Amino acid sequence: MKLSFSKQDEQFRAEVAAWLQANLCGEYETIRWRGGPGDEHMYVEERKAWERKLHEGGWTCIGWPEAHGGRGASIEQQVIFNEEYARAGGPGRIGHIGETLAGPTIIAFGSDQQQQRFLPGILRGEEFWCQGYSEPSAGSDLANVKTRASFDSDTQQWKISGQKVWTSLAHESQYCFVIARTDPDSVGHKGLGFFLLAMDQAGVDVRPIEQLTGTSEFNEVFFDEARCGANDIVGLPGDGWKVAMGLLGFERGVSTLGQQMLFQNELNEIVALAKRNGAARDPALRARIADAHMGLRIMRYNSMRMLSGGVDDGALQKSAMIYKLYWASWHRNLGKLAMDVLGDESEILEAAPYQLGRLQSMYLFTRSDTIYGGTNQIQRNIIAERALGMPREPRG
Amino acid sequence: MDFKFSDEQIMIRDTAEAFLAEVSTSAAVRAAMVTERGYDPDLWARICTEMYWPAIHIPEQYGGLGLGYVELVATLEQMGRRLLCAPFFASVCLAGNALLVAGNDAQKGAWLPRLVAGSSATLAFAGPQGGSDAAAVSVTCEQVGGRYRLNGVSRYVLDGHTAEWLVVAARAPGSAGNSGVSLLVLEANTEGVSRQWLPTMDQTRKQAQISFDDVWLDADALLGVEGESASALETVLDLARVALAADQVGGAQQSLDMTVDYLQERVQFGRSIASYQAVKHKCADMMVKVEAGRSALYYAACIADEALAGSAQSSQLAEAASIAKGYCSDAYFFNAGCGIQLFGGVGFTAEYDIQLYFKRAKSTETFLGNGDYHRQRLARQLLDEETI
Ligand SMILES: Cc1cc2nc3c(=O)[nH]c(=O)nc-3n(C[C@H](O)[C@H](O)[C@H](O)COP(=O)(O)OP(=O)(O)OC[C@H]3O[C@@H](n4cnc5c(N)ncnc54)[C@H](O)[C@@H]3O)c2cc1C
Question: Is the ipTM, as predicted for this complex, more than 0.90?
Answer without folding.
Answer: yes
